[in-house]
Amino acid sequence: MNNNTLLPLLVFSTTIITAVVCIILLLSFRSRNAGKNEGDLNNTLLIFCGLIVFNWSYGLMYLYRFNILTDLNPFVNCSYLLVQVILYRYAYIITRLPREKNFPPAHYLFPSVVFLITLIWSIFIPDREKLYSTLFTAISDSNYPIYHIWINSRYWLRIVFGIIYTVLAIRRIRRYRHEVANFSADSKHNLSGWLLLSVLLTLPMLILPLGIPLFDPRSLISSVFFILPAGLIITQMVALCYFTIMNHYVIIDEIPAENDGSGELPTRQEIPLDKKDFETYISTQKPYLDPRVKITDLCDALSSNRTYLSAFINREYAMNFNHYMNNLRLREAKNLHIDNVYSAKDKEEIALQAGFGSLRSYFRTRKEMDTDKADR
Amino acid sequence: MNTCFLLISWLPIVVAILCLIFTGLGLTDTREQQARRIMVSAIYYYLIIGGSFTSWLFYLWWPQAYVAAVPLCYFCMSFSTVFLYRLVCELTLKHFPETHYILPVSLTLVMSVWATTVPFDVKLNIVQNLGEHHSAYPLFSFFFTSILITQTVFNTIYAILSVRNFRLFQKEVSPNIKPSVLTWLKIVLSLICTSVLVPVIALIIGKNTGGILQVSLSIILFSFVCLLLTINILKGNYPRQPVRKIRNPEENSVNIPIKKHQRRINPKSRIDKEELLVFKNTLNIYFREKKPYRNPRLKMEDVAGEMGYTRNRFSALVNQASKVNFNTLVNSWRLKELARIEKTPENRSLSRAQQVKMAGFGSYDSYLRAEREIDLSKTRKKKKIESGKEGHTLTGMQHEQ
Lengths: 376, 401
Prior knowledge:
The complex is a heterodimer.
Chain A: H1 3-28, H2 36-64, H3 73-95, H4 109-123, H5 127-135, H6 145-180, H7 193-200, H8 202-205, H9 207-214, H10 217-222, H11 227-245, H12 275-285, H13 296-302, H14 306-317, H15 321-338, H16 340-343, H17 347-353, H18 359-375
Helix pairs in contact in A: 1-2, 1-11, 2-3, 2-11, 3-4, 3-6, 5-6, 6-7, 6-9, 7-11
Chain B: H1 3-29, H2 33-61, H3 63-68, H4 70-78, H5 80-91, H6 102-117, H7 120-128, H8 138-144, H9 147-173, H10 179-205, H11 207-235, H12 258-262, H13 273-290, H14 300-307, H15 311-322, H16 326-343, H17 352-359, H18 364-386, H19 396-400
Helix pairs in contact in B: 1-2, 1-11, 2-4, 2-5, 2-11, 4-6, 5-9, 9-10, 10-11, 13-15, 14-15, 16-17, 16-18
């Protein structure tokens, strides 16, 4: 075995092993993340990793067992597109706002149509032609040129799908980042940077489907450049898997934590909130001391709802819920610092006592507040 | 040597690297000391497992690289169980003496120094001939090819030590911990004990066929062990440090419900009402009996440790149970203690500053600030009740006092 075959073998197998390890981890943590949204996310990522296993196994067969590829064309054409839809679905579940409908099944329509067309068409094509269309991109030697173009269009469709769904996902994440600041003051888990990064990784990965129709697929797969898309997909899977199993996200949900699973939204009238009452509640109950406080946790006590309360804080204090809670935490931390006995304590203890999830969150918030002050 | 065997040999390297990445991510996420120690030990173990199988790949596919890195390969291939033993010690709450590194490091050093005195071609020749001794360097050849023997000896000793630790741990604390913790540890140790037998079989069968059999079996065992360790370490599915019991001199014993707290709970996970109630009662008993607030330098970590919680978890529980932070809670107990001191006839001769210090305040200023803060909260609460609205408890615990 020479280096030309050794390298793609190791690259393909590494990606497949990573996807399988991610599947094992996701299955192991399934019972822990048993909530509706958590379960949905887990399942979506399982499908995503499953599709990666299939696509990259297909690549491995392309190099070593290409005689069995002919029957897989419909599945490959579909899964190339489906992988992008599933990634978008993952981002959709995290960024879904209350009362927003579930992931529209219409997104599966196009991959399904592609699957059916390829399946039916392939019945009438001889195996030798199917194999040619799969292995070579040059149209000149094909006896079925339209079928050949259809099979090889999967690379271009993959690029188009990749770009469209990445743009859609980025738009959702941007809107979510704005909304989550009005919902949760969990300064650690509100960050959706990892999700944005994972989605953005799709774009450089598109050089693979772009390269295949332009160059000879075999020489491209055997080259060192092939390590780049493999490295990116591995990074993407590891990041998504870790943050999913460790619950590093906040889903905007109208139902307070205690009522999770009841399925019914609390219906409250919008009783005007008195600023004095609100501040009395904040100073006596100190909800900001809970590092994972959400706006819905305050709704019961204040007889209000999420939308109204959020608008109230924005109007009265000219800042979002997250900002407001962090301001209170910083004030609490400052008071703890002033105290002679506690000033000697390490910063982390003070940060935790003030309601920050970690010392890092404390420093980040302080920096943000300082920047805000300087801007003003 | 076929493609399939290469792929199988590649599997544990990738699995070990992935486990290392996942555990590394977990390490950046936690501040809990015990969890960090366990994760660091696991990372060392994955490194050495990855190194061990990389050495094997080098041996088969790239002998020059194997010869160039022979001390490192020797270390990884022979002493992986020492690192596993360290991890088992952490998991079974036992101390791991650093002296266990002396022999592996010494043998590796001997190999490094000795290997420099032997020509590269001689070493390459030994590897290419699958361990056949070189006539000009018989002693070195023996040492150079002794990996299988060293591995067998070390694996056997450290597997026995690991099992012994586990059995001791079972006897000491098993009634207080979840059975699932013991189950997965038991599976890991069973796999390790099986792995001990693998080089023995290889020694019996012979180096050529036995080596391949050894690697194939080891690949499956170690990949599974690495995954099992990663899943359970990330889940926090291991016993917590033992919890000290709080004794009530009047009622013989008032124990913190150890069973509830001994499992590691994600400090960021939601807290249910039942847990809050248990926590409130336990903390009240602890403060009433032990009076930790009398110590002006009391740290949250001390109380958290006494009660068997991590600092983060304890802080979250205090904040949610009492609606004040630990600092304010301790000060409220100190104020109550001060009121009791004032009423005691023998303390009446003491100055106010002395009484304040006796109650646990670090300074008179601290006392004034605490009093001001608590008075302010009480006034707010009173106003709220007077205004006819439902009053919110300043601190549930203060009322229970």
